[in-house]
Amino acid sequence: MDQTWLDQTAPSLDDFDRLARKAFDELPALFRQAAADVVIRIDDFPDEQTLRDLEIGDGFDLTGLYVGVHVGERDGLGPAPEPSRVFLYRRPILDEWCERGDVGLYEIIAHVLIHELGHHMGLDDDQIHDIEDDAD
């Protein structure tokens, strides 16, 4: 089938949400249970305050972000002081997808989501990268 792309549009925030929900639903049950209270939010870009706080000059450099208290730091059996959130940023993810050209959009969304959920589990970037390297 010849796909001309003439009738294609960029995936919307709702499309990203559906793909992120699919990726979450496909995680192992124990991982889903541990992250069940995490709010997943899709935005086009990180806001200016977030970029300043993280000392990032270009919004295209941040594809996702975890905000919250990870499970290892929570006070005993009590609830977290506020809901933990994972932000997925549509435009930077689309940019990475276009630049790479060697993986599907779903795979990138799932990768960013899992990376940010790793922070919810208390892992830092180096630990997450080590796990990713071992999986390859």
TrEMBL record:
It comes from the Bacteria. Signal peptide: none annotated. SUPFAM superfamilies: Metalloproteases ('zincins'), catalytic domain (SSF55486). Pfam families: Zincin_1. This is Metallopeptidase family protein. It comes from Brevundimonas terrae.
